[in-house]
Hints:
CATH topology of the domain at 94-172 and 260-297 in chain A: Cytochrome Bc1 Complex, Chain D, domain 2
Order of helices and strands of chain A: EEEHHHHHHHHHH
Radius of gyration of chain A: 35 Å
CATH class of the domain at 94-172 and 260-297 in chain A: Mainly Alpha
Distance between the termini of chain A: 82 Å
Structural class of chain A: mainly alpha
Oligomer: heterodimer
Helix content of chain B: 40-55%
Largest sheet of chain B: 5 strands, antiparallel
Number of domains of chain B: 3
Distance between the termini of chain B: 80 Å
Amino acid sequence: MANKRVDQPTGTETVGHEWDGIEELDTPMPRWWLWTFYLTIAWALVYVVLYPAWPLIDQGTEGVLGWTSRGQLAKDMTLADQAKRSVGEAIAATDIEKLPGKPELMRQAIAGGRAAFRVHCSQCHGSGAAGSQTLGYPNLNDDDWLWGGDLTSIEYTIANGVRQPEGDDRRQGEMPPFEGVFDTAQLTALAEHVLSLSGKAKPNRVGAQIFADNCTSCHGSNGEGDRAQGAPRLNDAIWLYGGTREDIARQVLRPRVGRMPAWQDKLDPVTIKMLAAYVHSLGGGETAVARGADPAAKVDEQP
Amino acid sequence: MNSLDPQTPLNALYEAKGTVHNRRIDGPFRRFKWAMMIVTLAIYYVTPWIRWDRGPYAPDQAVLVDLVHRRFYMFGIEIWPHEFYFVAGLLIMAGIGLFLVTSAVGRAWCGYACPQTVWTDLFQHVDRFVDGDRFARQKLDAAPWTWSKVARRAFKWSIYLFIGFWTGGAWIMYFADAPTLVHDFWRGEAAPAAYITVAVLTLTTVTLGGFMREQVCIYMCPWPRIQTAMMDEKSLLVTYKDWRGEPRGSVKKAEKHPGMFGDCIDCTMCVQVCPTGIDIREGPQIGCITCALCIDACDRVMAEVGRPRGLIDYATLEDCEAEAAGAPPRPAWKALLRPRTIAYLLIWSSIGLAMLFALGARSHAGLSVAPDRNPPFMLLSDGSVRNAYTLRLRNMATRPRRMSVSLEGLPGAAMWTDLTERADAARSLAVTVPADSTRSVRAYVVAPAATPQSEFSFAVTTLDAARESQRVVTNFETPTGERP
């Protein structure tokens, strides 16, 4: 190296180069910085041995601890599942109609149902469970139920779905299309009569006659509906497919009916129970009516 | 800084100095420093062990920062996270309190009460206990590393570690029930945070108190800089009265040439006893923490040589000038009262009073209301309209309380919850809220079909002797979307 010398004013050695009279001071690194740097090297060496580090051709080095981020996730998920297990077992051991009698368990079921609802149900029913009138997804917050609003019925509906070809026949009711059956005047009179059931129009004799001949077998003589067939109530303020005359006429001519997957194929009974508790808790839930004649309404609870 | 020393760069911000081996001294200020050390250390170590009965639903530790449950207990006061402004108020009071103390007695905080000062003092006493006084320590420092020196150092540093460990150990007691934590700590069952905190505080205590000492005050602490801006000619300082002391000369010289020398006999006792190793005779400086040990030393020397005390003394620069001009010395306590000090005192105490008033007047029951936004309203089959709200009832009392929640306004309306049904709907409902916690209640409010979009309130009242209550105004949304 060229002439290294100590720069007098600063007391620092120069690097030994000189460019047109300009010299560079060889200021040493601060020691704390150097030691931190050496420490990071030591740390890196230890880390490389313990943890996955070097990428190789097929996969990286594994590290002697055997740690993987997937393994970490699996461990965390297992821990979370274990934490939930006791609640899940308690819910599984409780008949759904008994849940309201255990407020703490009910609260936990509702909370679990709320989470499951966001994942499995909100795509159609909306994150607030308000459904959609244009798309025909029922609102679950209100007190109008197509298939029954008590805990047992809601659980049954979720488990078996609605109008599933291979499902059991208790959620199968369809409305036949009436296209070509009525002329325009008859259709108008019928729509008018349907609206009159909830007091939104004046009753008329022609419509009443058509209704009595064609509709009462499912919707009831006063439009009170029939939950056994999923026939909606027509004498209330809630309309699944719209409540104007045009909406009603269209629904008579070319009825739309909703379908829902049978969730017992995809979800475990505890989740279905929690979903039922959540839907029931949205404000429109009904008290279970004891229906001795209907043992099929029970779902097998054993997982 | 010596600019001729080629090893010290001109722009160096740090002056490498040897360890300060301050000499033992006795005197009123030293005794005051002892008392302050005992009081402050006692407060620090004993406080977490004071018990305070709050009944079966709250911890019985007098001072507890319960991070897990987010509660802050201080004797009869309990603070919830949403009341953190009380802590902010305390910090403001602490800040203004420092201004107040500085304005009245200068850097008294630095000299007597600052933890750095107290622990440095403690570690210096350890040095003296193990290695002897100033000269013995200086000699040992310079001595080669013999086995006896190694043994002495090992013994001293293990005392350092012991002090550091107890410092960290006492700190964590403020964050959990102290007896339980001690038990868990020694059985290895305490939270990792406890061990990490103790380790970190042991390290910082040993480093800052055992080795860095005065360098923390001179190079790291912002407070001397802030105080520099707050000092004026009326601030109380530890001052060397140079008009009286200069020129310096030994007693012998003074006897030989009477009238030529000042009172300072240049014995350097003031430098030897200084815990930050400065020479006060160079004038006020950032390294002076005004602990006044040099006053003790100088007064003692002056007494021995038969000259009046107070060559180094607490005085303001203004008084010094007056004294130099021939006025009689003004007692130091007269510097305490001045408009600035009184102004700080007024601000400080009014913040304290305002906080006390706010603490006394606060309600121990509360309600917050969050209306559902999705969906904002719900049409029911009979045409009536329903809104849903999430109510959060707050019970800050340390016992479970029953509270009634009722509707005010909204004629014809009724409510029920997610655990009941519409058949149970009523204008009010009663809820039991556990001690010292909140409880969330989902409320469905239903109003008749013709109800316009309007405001109404939820009112919560505790069903006990206190009858604390709170009203929260909220909106009732309807499909019409029009406000009256």
